Description:
Layout: E1 3-7, H1 12-23, E2 27-32, E3 47-50, H2 56-63, E4 68-71, H3 84-104, E5 108-112, H4 141-158, E6 163-168, E7 170-172, H5 181-190, E8 196-197, E9 201-206, H6 207-220, E10 226-229, E11 232-235, H7 236-247, E12 254-255, H8 258-275, H9 283-289, H10 298-304, H11 311-324, H12 333-349
Parallel strand pairs: 1-2, 1-4, 2-3, 4-5, 5-6, 6-10, 7-9, 8-12
Antiparallel strand pairs: 9-11
Helix pairs in contact: 1-6, 2-3, 3-4, 7-11, 8-9
Amino acid sequence: MKKALVTGAAGFIGSNVVKLLLERGVEVRAMVLPGEDLRNLAGVQAEQVQGNILDPATIDPALKGCDTLFHLAAVYSIFTKDRGVFYRVNLQGARNVLWAARRADLEKVVYTSSIAGIGVEPGPVPATEETAFNQFEGCNDYVLTKYLSQEEARTFAREGMPIVIVNPAFPYGEGDVAPTPTGKIILDVANGLQFMAYKGGINIVDVMDVARGHILAAEKGRVGEMYILGNENVTMTELFEMIVRAVGLDVRVVKVPMPLALLYGYLWERWAGLSGHQPMTTATEISYSHKFLFYDISKARTELGYDPAPVEVSMRRAITWFRREGFIPRTGPAVRLMTGLGRLMKRIFG
Length: 350
């Protein structure tokens, strides 16, 4: 690997991939959108080129002279009023990149999918790369488009393209300027806006470990294979309590029944539809994570040498970064309202 193009280079995971590649002496071309927030690339000595994966004419020039491609550009969100953006970017944009990569005759393509492209096992049983996708009913547009685009990437691999697919779990960490949906969960708990935990869980992982997994996939991944880049499986209660400890809050997480949690998510979804603002959560998101989004990372450990750090340690580091950047604490009417509601819920549910 001598020169790599990274799409989505200014993003949460993409910017960390860029930095790690540079540390390894790889020449990097970072593809960014015109007018994009470039804070994550500040001071990074990578060649920047403006481009848009929705415009095929900008992809071919960006790949010229590169031997490796890391495709990370995608829309990662639980809600948007324009649902079509998921299909344009995550699906058609991915197609554009894959066809450009085929024309470029690259040595290796690392295609960033998601654990969203993998199925879910019943109960708290961890899924593997072999677990067939089974979320057609009830999933959101992000989940569906990541699965569909992943299948297109697998088709290109079967046709001879040297593609390795990575499936990151729920990333968090320093540099989450957006913030991402995972970062928003952390901030909502840390700022006292979220206090209700429900049955279910997710697999969380430090963004730096995800970035390292991308590099390992380029170096050691088998063509056509998928690798889950996650770390620890935690219940929603365990996650919230971990955040509370990292922040140093003197509060107790409230466990609520699923019908109430779903109503809570539905009300936020309705509010988001009317206001245009991002909801704290949605009924679809709660229903999805209620299924236990647990994953087994044994394949990445064994084949790639993937070895993620303990999540409790990296969670404290993430909280420190959020504090330094002014994301914690948040104040205002919404915080006061949710804090008061939290006290009421604690009285009801103990």
